[in-house]
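User:
Note these tokens:
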Amino acid sequence: MNILIINGPNLNLLGIRNTVTYGNKSFAQLEVELVDELKKLGFDVDFFQSNHEGEIVSKIGESIGKSDAIIINPGALTHYSYSIRDALEAFPGKKVEVHISNIYCREEFRKESVISPVVDGVISGFGIDSYLLATNWLARVLK
């Protein structure tokens, strides 16, 4: 079983950018923690980050037939990327949208997700544990 974890714009700046909102763990630390956890659960992991919408769309398309599930934190693309939405809609496996911060307690524009209607669930506001909650759910539904 393979899980693709996709991170959108600026998530490579974790540990540097607005640590009050996003925490002190670096992007590299997040990757190590998630890959270790998923391997313990018996999954292969593909970890991907891009600041470019088209690269994310391409990665989703390439994962069809290769990945069983996607965990995606689209970052700011959450609010307007219909191309990512459409790519996710075409992906036949399980899909979880995650956010480190509680997007519903922030600026108005962050409260709208064009991604949410095409995923199985949304986890928001638990810091990087949002990813771990997603992995635990996937472990239950995919095994």
Q: What stands out?
A: Residues 2-142 form a domain with the Rossmann fold fold (CATH 3.40.50.9100). The beta strands are 2-7, 44-49, 69-73, 94-99, 121-124. The longest helix spans residues 27-40.
